[in-house]
Amino acid sequence: MAEEREQKNDKGKGKPKVVSSRAYVNFALIRHTGEQFVIDFGERHFEDPNRIQMLAGVKMSPEHAKALLKALYENIKKYENKIGKIPWPPGAPGDTDLDWFFEKGKRG
Fold first, then answer.
1. Element (H or E) spanning 18, and its range?
2. Taking the model in full, what pTM does it have?
3. Rounded to an integer, what distance in angstroms lies between the CA atom of residue 22 and that of residue 33?
4. β-bridge mates for residue 57, sequence order
5. What is the dihedral sign for C-alpha 77, 82, 88, 89?
């Protein structure tokens, strides 16, 4: 489930202690308004695919959402060049090519 970590600074003073948590997710719900993007992350249960436990959510500006998209694309390409092509999950459009998607965006 969730893994919690604490990072302490060297001297114990100055910067605040950072507490972060990580969880496995296999579901994301993305929506937006005129001012922000909201991404909620959860875990879909194998026994009941209609049951999703929401674990975390983030809000960000449209500019940060676009920067996140670019960072994900660049990291996926690095991963695939080093380890191999990532298959699309079941039910996803298997003919979708990220390179084509991003190259088309540059031209349009």
1. strand 18-22
2. 0.69
3. 26
4. 40
5. negative
Q: What are the DSSP calls for 26-79, one per residue?
A: -EEEEEE-SS-EEEEEEEE-SS-TT-EEEEEEEEE-HHHHHHHHHHHHHHHHHH
* Cβ atoms 35, 61 nearer than 8 A: yes
Mean pLDDT confidence for 95-100: 67
State the residue for tokens 């026994």: 47
pLDDT at site 4: 52
Q: How far apart are CA 101 and CA 61, in angstroms?
A: 22
Give domain limits for the chain.
3-94
Q: How far is CA 6 from the centre of its chain?
A: 21
Largest CA distance in the chain: 53
Sequence-separated (6 or more) residues with CB below 8 Å from residue 64: 37
